[in-house]
């Protein structure tokens, strides 16, 4: 599914579904809040996804990782002190694109109860920790087995590890985060102990890496920190 098609699908169906429930023309069976605050259960998130083929991913992995990182930065804003400002921007866009009339209160309801965004740390625990009830790969295996039982698939037609790149991409992005944090500690220690030459260059790289880390741009933060490590010869 292309991003354009995904946006059309989301914008086209969200107002319609929400308005149906408001008019009592449809019944909401379950909401995210039923799983606890800021928690997305398997029913809540199972319909969402981004699709691409392996050939595209092999050539554009950096783009895919940056796209995923951007979604988590949006989640940070939507769960932080600027929620109202962010939802207002999204609400105006949604209303214009779908000819709807969502209020800010309704946008809050969707963001809190119906379709909340989860942060990177929440995703780590909820989707990508083996053993958790909502571990993504287990959810996919359940879907595959259901389709095998219904006769829609044959045993071995779809294998989670070949079909889903979600855990691989998340692990790669999480790896940038943890590597950057580890490298920054090492660099700061060497810098403070006067073990570096060209301090101005190193300081600039550290500041840039820290700035990118603060806005959760872990890819560039890790690259900048690594560049500083090379210059220090660590």
Structural features, described:
The structure is a single chain. The chain has about 230 residues and is an all-alpha fold. The protein folds into 2 domains: about 120 residues, no CATH class; about 60 residues. The protein is built from 11 helices and no strands. It starts with a helix and ends with a helix.
**Could you say which overall geometry the principal axes of the C-alpha atoms support?**
globular
Question: Which regions are unreliable across 5 or more consecutive residues at pLDDT < 50?
Answer: 1-12, 34-47
Helical residue percent band: 55-70%
On the 0 to 100 scale, the average pLDDT is 79
Major β-sheet annotation: none
- Class inferred from helices and paired strands: mainly alpha
Total number of β-strand segments? 0
Radius of gyration of CA atoms, rounded to a whole number: 21 Å
H/E topology pattern = HHHHHHHHHHH
Number of helices: 11
% residues in beta strands: under 5%
Terminus-to-terminus distance: 43 Å
What labels describe this entry?
mainly alpha; 234 residues; 68% helix
In a nutshell, what does this entry contain?
The protein has 234 residues and is mainly α.
